[in-house]
Queue: 4 jobs
Job 1
Amino acid sequence: MMNIPPSINTIIQQQPYPLLFAIISGSHLYGFPSPDSDYDLRGVHILPVREVIGLETGNEFI
């Protein structure tokens, strides 16, 4: 089990939309982090229907 710093939870809680899930990717996921490695986060947000359906394009990532 990986030791996740509390700052990761803070970042997740600050997101503008609720998260369906979030994962750590990159070197930490593969088990090869160096002492100065950062954390790569990926997740899926639950967006309001009005922002998903329509003719206007929105942000592809946050």
Job 2
Amino acid sequence: MQITDVRVRKITKEGKMKAVVSITLDDEFVVHDIKVIEGEKGLFIAMPSKKATDGEYRDIAHPINSSTRENLQKVILESYEKALEEPEEAI
């Protein structure tokens, strides 16, 4: 499985969420709403989730093993860092 595209939407308002990302896998499958979060130990990703009836949030899509999660996080955070270097688009 290869990540063939990463799209980063930077969040400009203050807060822990820094960006929302969409990734394309093998040019065939897209996962939207992956969040880049600033935590106590640095940046990390949070997979798309929805609120369950018990009030807890559950991932809608997520990697099965830690090596896949680490690879996703590495590629997404590298893309986020590159996006930070790009000038803001005028609206």
Job 3
Amino acid sequence: MFATPAFAQAASGGAGGAAAFTSFVPLILIFGIMYFIMIRPQQKKMKEHKSMVEALRRGDQIVTQGGLIGKVTKVKDDNEVEVELAEGVKVRVVRSTIAQVVSKTEPAAS
């Protein structure tokens, strides 16, 4: 009916290493699934956003994360752009806060 402690120890004595490994297999699988479902797509999205922000040029129409739509009038440095929201209204915007480029200008032919 009940297993005595001596019988229980004798039954599991030889498979201790394999049992420890099999208990970690679900954790490894969960981490692998989480990597392919959550971490990898987020890294890809961040890389695309970074390349989009680095490719900003004068004349591009953008949308900021705050929902403001404007036109890039000047690319000041590697962290900041000047955006015209309305006629005569220009603001400085940090590049990382630009959510998307609505319309891209064509490069000048040389």
Job 4
Amino acid sequence: MPPRFVPRVLAGLLVCLAVLLTGCSGGSTPDSPASRASPGASAPAWAHGMATVPASRLPAEARRTLALIDRGGPFPYAKDGAVFGNFERHLPRHPRGYYHEYTVKTPGSRDRGARRLVTGQGGEIYYTDDHYDSFRAVLR
């Protein structure tokens, strides 16, 4: 290989490596690893450092629950609107009663399932699809 091609080959390899390391998917769903791991660049201050998901990319059931929250109910589950204790401490710390949780129906589940929306008194909304093991800030 002539010496003048070596820098071009190296540059090409570096670009390929960068693409592989950062990912180059055409898009991601709310439940995909790509959306879980990428904090939003235009996220509000309360979501700083968290993974985010636009409300429009939530599962349809979560969007329906979000609409019920906006309307103030009625909610299908007795525990909807209950205080969320944040015992896992995945959300910013606030006094008890700051957060409230709402069930997001899981198709095929016989019980409430693992999906929830959690709201904060400051207008924050968080989504979890793994029963509080992780959260994404919902961007509206």
